Amino acid sequence: MVGGPRINVKYGRKDSLDSDMNRVEGKLARPNMTMDHIISIFGSAGLTVQEMVALVGSHTIGFSHCKEFASRIFNSNAEHSADFCPEGMNAKYAAELRKLCANYTKDAEMSAFNDVFTPGKFDNMYYKNLQHGYGLLESDQAIAFDNRTRPFVDLYAANETAFFDAFAKAMEKFSEQRVKTELNGDVRRRCDQYNDYRG
């Protein structure tokens, strides 16, 4: 629907019968984690560094709340905050983000697109953005500089087909992790609700 690759997902995968956000902590990468930590999280799910970089390309669509990257764009030294630019970030982009998120502490819904140029299109612009300092999240920008991840950022920035192929394969592989069987799960009629949802 947004222009990305077709992904072959197996039918009938069962979803959890309960949902507990406390069980997620430590299993999802956070914007302020080190690259070592992020690689470790993806590795514990059986994914390679290349697969991780491909999957993070999903940030080509969607948005992030300002609170997730505020510490990156606002300098704690107020005297110099107007011209502060985080390492690796385009200075004009940083200034615009500061304007956009100026009131983020009063409005928790304040957010910015992950891909400032083509936010509603699934494409390889996310990787091109990283090469030019337009990475919104600290963890995103870091993959453009880390020696383990940068070759894949460069590959996917130059070759959208390579990105699409790698993304589809990594999604298929990831969808087969921790599959629930028999009574341990339920095939939901709506993916965002339990079948016995009382709303």
From TrEMBL:
Keywords: Calcium, Disulfide bond, Heme, Iron, Metal-binding, Oxidoreductase, Peroxidase. The keyword Acyltransferase does not apply. SUPFAM superfamilies: Heme-dependent peroxidases. It holds the Pfam family peroxidase. Disulfide bonds join 66-101. Binds 1 heme b (iron(II)-protoporphyrin IX) group per subunit. Binds 2 calcium ions per subunit. Heme b binds at residue 59. GO terms for biological process: response to oxidative stress. Its EC number is 1.11.1.7. It catalyses: 2 a phenolic donor + H2O2 = 2 a phenolic radical donor + 2 H2O. Removal of H(2)O(2), oxidation of toxic reductants, biosynthesis and degradation of lignin, suberization, auxin catabolism, response to environmental stresses such as wounding, pathogen attack and oxidative stress. These functions might be dependent on each isozyme/isoform in each plant tissue. Belongs to the peroxidase family. Ascorbate peroxidase subfamily. This is peroxidase. It comes from Brassica cretica.
